[in-house]
Amino acid sequence: MKKVTGIGGIFFKSKDKAALNEWYAKNLGLPVSNYGTVFNWRDADNPDKEASTVWSPFAEDTKYFEPSTKDFMINYRVENLEALVEELKAEGVTITDEIKTYDYGKFVHILDPEGNAIELWEPID
């Protein structure tokens, strides 16, 4: 079974996300919104399939990365999230919440051995 198929997003805490977004827009040309920016790309194995990676600063006091105390979180794109979660449970991986489903995909959060928060996303492309 394929597990991680790419990076879905890079998320990090910021003292002033609006100012940081503005800096990245001005100096690096990122087309930012309140949520950061989205990089669109095509799947190497299926060039007709479009995909995206999100870059997004979060408020410095966000609770979204908890229970991790780190200032960042990586979102990985995966296939078959339910099966992957069962494998991770069997391996003793810390799963911090239940799978949630939205109109753009399914999500769950885990921790690596160093306490880094990881968001797993099965997108609906």
TrEMBL record:
<dbReference type="InterPro" id="IPR052164">
    <property type="entry name" value="Anthracycline_SecMetBiosynth"/>
</dbReference>
<feature type="domain" description="VOC">
    <location>
        <begin position="6"/>
        <end position="123"/>
    </location>
</feature>
<dbReference type="Pfam" id="PF00903">
    <property type="entry name" value="Glyoxalase"/>
</dbReference>
<dbReference type="InterPro" id="IPR029068">
    <property type="entry name" value="Glyas_Bleomycin-R_OHBP_Dase"/>
</dbReference>
<dbReference type="InterPro" id="IPR037523">
    <property type="entry name" value="VOC_core"/>
</dbReference>
<dbReference type="InterPro" id="IPR004360">
    <property type="entry name" value="Glyas_Fos-R_dOase_dom"/>
</dbReference>
<protein>
    <submittedName>
        <fullName>Glyoxalase</fullName>
    </submittedName>
</protein>
